[in-house]
Amino acid sequence: MLLEAYSSDPARQQDPADSTYYISMTKKNKSSKKTQVKNFTEDFEDAQECEMEDPPNSSIVRLPPQGPASDVFSSAPREKHNKKSIRPPVLFHREHEEPHGYLSQWYLSSFTDPTTNQTYNCAEQYMMHHKALFRDDLTTAASILATPYPKDQKALGRCVANWDDEAWDAVKEKVVEDGSYLKFSQNKDLKERLLMTGERELVEASASDRVWGVGFNAKSALSKRDEWGLSLLGKCLMRARERVKEDEAKRV
Questions:
Q1: Strand ranges for 144-183 from DSSP E
Q2: According to the model, what pLDDT value does residue 252 have?
Q3: What are the NADAR domain coordinates in residue numbering (predicted)?
């Protein structure tokens, strides 16, 4: 570069060893490079301080300054899809088992059907009595009301005359839902406990019942979810819970 500058200068036709000219050109080039670097640095700093103006009617949305990319993504809301983040179902079975035995049909809790003024000592008695009434078997219906033991009530319910499974299947869930609603709406303590379950799924963990339960006990029910039965009792209880919630909302 120094030789090109020297040869292109008509005024300098002398020995290239001329130290005065060489030093002068070297200082000039160094000064030029410093000026270029300084100008570039100043332009870059000015560009950082300058805010770009959007054109009229621009649809560009400018975001506030962000940190590293990981910070941007971590601050964004995430959909809760992790199974561990979802509250587990409420599992119940025997009426004496805590903390959720109160959800059992056999749990003793007196309530009255306002349409007939008939009182029942548990939801199982209500269900079996209505099974007998459904087939007009008044003798069995009276026997069900006469016994205070849920186990005996269930046994009598299996002895209803002129039984029709298909016809009963069409109405049985409504019967159990209504009985559950009366049970919880008329017993303050039970109502509070039911409402404490919030929106959690209610599941009867019965290993021997795949219709009203899921067909698995509490120890294996969650790991066998893909193989669950119908869980009709839990579904009836959840519908009854919604009715109780609606009643409470009306009182506010």
A1: none
A2: 82
A3: 92-244
